[in-house]
């Protein structure tokens, strides 16, 4: 009887050990040999260059990870980048998101404009898929169930920086704000008005405009009548240039103008705007303004025969953060990745300060102030505290 009991005990222990080993092997192998990374963004139309910039940043990071021999639990792992064009619309984002889910991606980088991103987020939320984004509207990280991670500063932080810098360069001037009537524009304006009050700025005029409109004649007259000396313009390139023409026609250009992210384009930098001074307060720093920027720029040019135009370096670091989270979690399950991304200080190469908080926001996002000099944007200052 005793011999049988010992034998039975040994069999149970052997079975238990076998199951444990199988479980551990299962954990190690729960990461597939090829992990699919989705990039759902605007790849065509007026904003296509920015969307492709994000896509190229992810591709460049994947190439670097493959060269270094990326492994999880000692096993070689490859990444496959799958892209989907949202065509710059919320409906397009829904379709692109579903396309990426159907193809089995584990993580998504996307989308671009906040209105568009908000269209796709409910689709990703059905599986709690991690979404890495440069969209800055505050609503973006509050949708879903904690699966959205922002690579740059939020609208609220950008608005605070706009008000703070405006107060420093145009103290005592009457101020005005005009914004495109979009999720992004409304969010910046709302937070800007609050921050302007705290900065003791007198906001004499505050208006919104349809994103497709180019008629600024009435607004220009209001600025002249109110004797505005500081203008906050939350507009994109085409609208900004139309506004400049309207203000020239009204002979009211002796103003300091502060712009937000979308106006930081090569065309705006190359245009001789008629204002006393023009600045862009940007939630994304140019790659050239980082210590490792020159190396990244060289690799990017070699791979794509062009310069980055928006936030390729943030997407690049974001992909390294994702790879680091997968390696530490030893999993591509959404709940594991979402939890891990919020708790690690990931290994990144360009920005070197990327870290997501519990709310999916950057812990210490730097905001830069740029001014056009000889046709290019030059950094005047940057800070994570405003």
Quick summary:
The chain has 386 residues and is an alpha/beta fold. It folds into 2 domains: 34-153 and 288-355, Rossmann fold (3-Layer(aba) Sandwich), CATH 3.40.50.2300; 155-282 and 369-383, Rossmann fold. The protein is built from 12 helices and 14 strands.
Helices and strands in order, then pairings?
Layout: H1 2-29, E1 34-41, H2 48-68, E2 71-72, E3 75-76, E4 78-85, H3 90-102, E5 107-109, H4 114-125, E6 131-133, E7 148-150, H5 155-169, E8 174-180, H6 183-198, E9 202-209, H7 217-225, E10 230-234, H8 237-249, E11 256-259, H9 266-270, E12 277-282, H10 293-304, H11 312-329, H12 334-341, E13 367-373, E14 376-383
Parallel strand pairs: 1-4, 1-5, 5-6, 6-7, 8-9, 8-10, 10-11, 11-12
Antiparallel strand pairs: 2-3, 12-13, 13-14
Helix pairs in contact: 2-11, 3-4, 5-6, 11-12
Span between N and C termini? 79 Å
Order of helices and strands: HEHEEEHEHEEHEHEHEHEHEHHHEE
Radius of gyration: 24 Å
The CATH architecture designation of the largest domain is 3-Layer(aba) Sandwich
Reported for the largest beta sheet, the result is: 7 strands, mixed
β-strand number? 14
Which outline best applies? elongated
Account of the 3D structure:
This protein is an alpha/beta fold. It folds into two domains: 34-153 and 288-355, Response regulator (Rossmann fold, 3-Layer(aba) Sandwich), CATH 3.40.50.2300; 155-282 and 369-383, 3-Layer(aba) Sandwich (Rossmann fold). It is 44% helix and 19% strand. The protein has helices at residues 2-29, 48-68, 90-102, 114-125, 155-169, 183-198, 217-225, 237-249, 266-270, 293-304, 312-329, 334-341; strands spanning 34-41, 71-72, 75-76, 78-85, 107-109, 131-133, 148-150, 174-180, 202-209, 230-234, 256-259, 277-282, 367-373, 376-383. The strands form three sheets. Strands 9-8-10-11-12-13-14 form a seven-stranded mixed β-sheet, with helices on both faces. It has a five-stranded parallel β-sheet with strand order 4-1-5-6-7, sandwiched between helices. Helix 4 (114-125) links the parallel strand 5 and strand 6. Helix 3 (90-102) packs parallel to helix 4 and helix 5 (155-169) crosses helix 6 (183-198). Residues 1-28 have low confidence and may be disordered.
């Amino acid at each position: 009887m005793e011999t049988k009991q010992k034998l039975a005990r040994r069999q149970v222990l052997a079975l238990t050990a076998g199951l444990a080993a199988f479980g551990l092997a299962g954990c190690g192998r729960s990461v597939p040999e090829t992990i699919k990374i989705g990039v759902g963004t605007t790849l065509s139309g007026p904003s296509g260059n920015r969307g492709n910039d994000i896509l190229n940043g992810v591709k460049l990071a994947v190439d670097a990870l493959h060269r270094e021999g990326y492994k999880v639990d000692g096993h070689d792992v490859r990444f496959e980048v799958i892209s989907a064009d949202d065509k710059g619309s919320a409906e397009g984002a829904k379709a692109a998101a579903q396309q990426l889910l159907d193809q089995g991606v584990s993580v998504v980088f996307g989308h671009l404009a906040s209105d568009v991103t908000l269209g796709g987020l409910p689709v990703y939320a059905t599986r709690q898929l991690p979404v890495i984004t440069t969209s800055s509207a505050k609503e973006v990280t509050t949708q879903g169930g904690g699966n959205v991670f922002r690579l740059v500063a939020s609208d609220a932080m950008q608005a605070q920086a706009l008000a703070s810098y405006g107060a420093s360069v145009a103290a005592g001037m009457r101020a005005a704000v005009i914004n495109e009537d979009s999720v992004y524009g409304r969010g910046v304006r709302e937070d800007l008005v609050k921050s302007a009050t705290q900065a003791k700025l007198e906001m004499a005029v505050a208006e919104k405009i349809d994103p497709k409109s180019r008629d600024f004649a009435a607004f220009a007259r209001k600025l002249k009548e109110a004797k505005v000396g500081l203008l906050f313009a939350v507009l994109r390139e085409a609208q900004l240039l139309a506004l400049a023409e309207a203000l020239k026609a009204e002979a009211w250009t002796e103003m300091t103008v502060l712009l937000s992210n979308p106006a930081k384009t090569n065309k705006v930098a190359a245009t001789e705007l008629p204002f006393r001074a023009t600045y862009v307060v940007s939630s994304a720093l140019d790659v050239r303004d980082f210590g490792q920027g020159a190396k990244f720029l060289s690799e990017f040019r070699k791979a794509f025969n062009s310069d980055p135009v928006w936030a390729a370096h943030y997407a690049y670091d974001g992909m390294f953060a994702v790879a680091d989270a997968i390696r530490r979690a030893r999993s591509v399950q959404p709940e594991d990745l979402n939890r891990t991304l919020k708790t690690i200080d990931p290994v990144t190469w360009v920005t070197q300060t990327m870290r997501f908080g519990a709310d999916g926001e950057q812990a210490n996002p730097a905001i830069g102030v740029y001014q056009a000099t000889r046709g290019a944007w030059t950094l005047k200052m940057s800070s994570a505290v405003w």
